[in-house]
Amino acid sequence: MKRSDNRSTPTTATFRGTAKEFFSEKDAYVWMVERFISYKPQLFTHTASDDLKYLCYGARGATYFSRSKVELRKPHSLPNGWYVELNLGNTQKIRNLGRLASAVRLKYEVDWKWDALNRRTKAPIDVEAILAELDQFARTTSVAQQN
Fold it and tell me: Looking at the domain assignment, is residue 116 inside a domain?
C-alpha cells in the first residue's frame, strides 16, 4: 500500500469480518465510526446524558463528536447528521473507537480491529495497550464518582 503523502498512516480497519485498507488513518477512522453508527443507529440519540458526554468530550474539554460543526476544528459530516472531529492524533482516534465500541458492546479483535503503524517508529501501534489504559481510566473514574 502506498502512502498518499508523507504524513499519512496506512491503516487496515476491520469491522465484523469486513477488512478494508486505507491510505490514511483519518479515512479509516471515518469508515470505522460510520460502521459503529450503522451497527447501532441510535448511538448518539438514545444514549444516557453521562454516557453521551463520555463519547463526545475529552477530559480537557476537547470535542470529538457534535451536532454542530462549529464546535469542531476539522469537522466531517456523518450519516446520522452529527459531525466527527478529524484533527486528532492516532492514539486519540483509537481511544474514541474504544469508547464507541464499549457503548455498542463490541469487543476488540472479535468485532473490530485496527492495524496501523506508528508514524515515527514504523512499529505497529499497540491498540490493546491503549484500550487497556482507557479501560483503567474508566474504572478509576467510576470508583471516584461512586465515593
Answer: yes
Neighbour tally for 120: CB within 10 Å: 6
Determine contact, residues 84/75, Cβ cutoff 8 Å.
yes
Which CATH number fits the domain that encloses residue 26?
A: 1.20.1380
* Residue 115, beta-bridge partner list: 12
79-138 pLDDT per residue, tens: 999 999 999 988 899 999 999 999 999 999 999 999 986 666 566 777 787 777 767 655
The rounded distance, in Å, linking the Cα atoms of 39 and 50 is: 21
- Domain count within the chain: 1
- Whether the full predicted model's pTM is greater than 0.85, yes or no, is no
Which residue range(s) make up the domain with 130?
11-140
Of 53, 47, 7, 50, nearest in space to 27 by CA:
7
CB proximity list for 30: less than 8 A, separation 6 or greater: 76, 84, 86
Q: State phi, psi for 15 to the nearest 5 degrees.
A: -130, 115
Q: Residue 5 domain-assigned?
A: no
